[in-house]
Amino acid sequence: MENVTEGTWDTLPERLNDKIRQTLRELNFSHMTPVQSATIPLFMSNKDIAAEAITGSGKTLAFVIPLLEILLKREAKLKKNQVGAIIITPTRELAVQIDEVLSHFTKHFPQFSQILLIGGSNPVEDIKKCKEHGGNIIIATPGRLEDMFRRQADGLDLVSSVKTLDVLILDEADRLLDMGFEASLNTILGHLPKQRRTGLFSATQTQEVENLVRAGLRNPVRITVKEKGVAATSTQKTPTRLQNYYMICKANEKFNYLVSFLRQRKQEKHLVFFSTCACVEYYGKALEAFIKNVKVMSIHGKMKHKRNKIFTEFRKLDSGILVCTDVMARGIDIPEVNWVIQYDPPSSA
């Protein structure tokens, strides 16, 4: 799609539901981003979508809004134990974030129940929640969702529940595959009805993503959204307004420079990326010792139960340092971050 310009929500070919428009006003979203104006009309006209757009381009609303519109137009209302939509995303932090965004909308639609199925929580509790409250809209990480499909012996028949599925969203699809979820995704896809709308969103286009498009989507419309002033042929992965800096120093001086940089900016909010979970553990403790009167928190993929709590707590802080691995590298929306520091060279850029 070329020459897609932002407009107000009123410029969409089909008028949005009044309660969705009300929520957009409450969230102060008066205009669409390019990925939203490109995707929403196509999704609402029953097309499968394969969208390539950089992180931070507004992809979440690009699928949340048409997902709700499609469910609202269902002839038969969803019963408690029927699933109408599934959103699959690579990390639990991203799933929590999407769940929060969706909650702003579903509070106006009490007929829809939503459920978050992610690692780090007790699967027995998830089963209990599913049985008691249902989940018309599921937001999940692949491993936990795949596990839920195997829980018939525990009284959860998700295989039957998804027969009513209208919408499947694969968010950050390239990251889903990078993290080794291909087998889980194929298992999940095998349980879902073929007659559905599927949206796949990705920051990069790889052969693996293309294979997933072929396996999971039917005659998709392909959308590539670039920022203004970026050539259509360029492989842009970072926002043009993001300013990048680098520092050259000797290896044995690197940590000293990091401490000095952060000490000068104690009132600000920072993300510091390291390459491994062990580095996060080690340097997190070191920064805590060297930088006084600053909240230093650590998060990495091997943390089982604390990750959700730490992520939520850091988002609420006015200042502080979050030491992390690339589990936090994609799609995470943390308010008012001043500096993102890459201590080790990234494994992918």
UniProtKB/TrEMBL annotation:
GO molecular function: ATP binding; hydrolase activity; RNA binding; RNA helicase activity
Residue ranges constituting the Helicase C-terminal domain according to the UniProt record: 254-349
Domain Helicase ATP-binding residue range list: 40-223
Domain notes per entry: The Q motif is unique to and characteristic of the DEAD box family of RNA helicases and controls ATP binding and hydrolysis.
Role description: RNA helicase.
Signal peptide from the UniProt entry: none
Keywords, comma-separated and alphabetical: ATP-binding, Helicase, Hydrolase, Nucleotide-binding, RNA-binding
Reactions mediated catalytically: ATP + H2O = ADP + phosphate + H(+)
Family label: Belongs to the DEAD box helicase family. DDX55/SPB4 subfamily.
SUPFAM superfamilies, alphabetized: P-loop containing nucleoside triphosphate hydrolases
Protein EC: 3.6.4.13
Native organism taxonomy: Eukaryota, Metazoa, Chordata, Craniata, Vertebrata
PROSITE patterns: DEAD_ATP_HELICASE, HELICASE_ATP_BIND_1, HELICASE_CTER
Name of the featured protein: ATP-dependent RNA helicase
Origin species: Aquarana catesbeiana (American bullfrog)
